[in-house]
Amino acid sequence: MKDNNVLTDSFSDFANTRDRKVSRPLLIRLAEMQISYKNLLSLAQGRRTLNRTLRDVCSRSRIINDENRITGNGVESVVQKIIDFFKKGMDPSNIQAAIEEFIRSQVLAPEAQKLNRPHDPLRGPSKRVFTSLVEALKTCKDDI
């Protein structure tokens, strides 16, 4: 695949014709960025092979860019759900347990995932609150 095809294939489906125009200054900036990225990878590589470094970067990216990560609109939606549970008179300890589990589910740093300690699975009202928070987040998955 030619370099230009990689660029044009990555355009959003929502991009209009003007947004899809690939100008010479844009190509120059992209080439400069590519050189900078290669230099960054070279620094990160250390004594490892380039293939090993790229595998590590891909592995970290899969964790960090998880499709279920929270967005700005997701935060609003989740907080509103929490407020609703308080208004309904749910026991604050059940809400707190669900919040803690939700936060644990949103820690997307690879280093932190290794440190995740085993914990008791949620049950009853706490599990219902947690499930509701996750569902609220899913409705905002494609938002900012």
List strands and helices in order, with pairings.
Blueprint: H1 3-9, H2 24-45, H3 50-64, H4 72-87, H5 92-106, H6 110-115, H7 124-139
Describe this structure in words.
This protein is mostly helical. Helices cover 67% and strands 0% of the residues. It has helices at 3-9, 24-45, 50-64, 72-87, 92-106, 110-115, 124-139.
Total count of strands: 0
Number of helices: 7
SS strand fraction? under 5%
**Helix-strand sequence:** HHHHHHH
| Mean pLDDT value | 83
Structural class: mainly alpha
Distance between the termini: 31 Å
- Low-pLDDT windows of residues: none
Biggest beta sheet summary:
none
Judging from the principal axes of the Cα atoms, what is the shape? flat
Rg, rounded, reads 21 Å
Helical proportion, percent range = 55-70%
Throw out a few tags for this protein.
144 residues; mainly alpha; 7 helices; 67% helix; 0% strand
Question: Gist?
Answer:
By secondary structure, this protein is mainly alpha-helical.
